[in-house]
Amino acid sequence: xxxxxxxxxxxxxxxxxxxxxxxxxxxxxxxxxxxxxxxxxxxxxxxxxxxxxxxxxxxxxxxxxxxxxxxxxxxxxxxxxxxxxxxxxxxxxxxxxxxxxxxxxxxxxxxxxxxxxxxxxxxxxxxxxxxxxxxxxxxxxxxxxxxxxxxxxxxxxxxxxxxxxxxxxxxxxxxxxxxxxxxxxxxxxxxxxxxxxxxxxxxxxxxxxxxxxxxxxxxxxxxxxxxxxxxxxxxxxxxxxxxxxxxxxxxxxxxxxxxxxxxxxxxxxxxx
Length: 272
What we know:
6 strands
């Protein structure tokens, strides 16, 4: 599974990759001529592990990184990115428009599809419509991350439906202290108050219409956090599965794969 997420492979691609790649066989402990798993094995393995056990495993790795001083929570970058659901939204829209019992209407009384009823008509009942900024819309989920800025490693991971705002998910990815860098999505007073209650200093870029906005400070915050925005660019923005739980599994595996690949560049000795 780790190789599958490192190489960003589907189940069928992972079957072929492990069968044909000698390095992959060695990594997984297979002899040269030993049979390797077929594609259906991977979905069964994910089900056997489950989200709870994978979370424990991820936390053990993160705790080791903290004990080694590679995750220090002195400076943390918090942000979210989109996860696009792999469903046909137009089919859900057509079902909503054809359903005479649909109570969601526009100003002219016509039936419509929105976040209140999309779970009833979509094949991915957990996915929702999301918006980031003024012109970025999608259907699916949000992946919320906190990135420790000492070594660029992912600390906390959370997947929510796309309509959950950034500051609503902040408690699940907030560090236990230090300075937190974040964009305008976290500029709400409730989010900044929460950071203070956790013993954090809020390095949040404020919206243009806020009285206390300091443009020089915001330019400095943007420059400091810019190198770590690449973490989000390197992670696949497609939801592999349907449902929040399965996509949380995906996000944890992607974060685990990213951290282990990152360790190759920043350390020369094994992490206990």
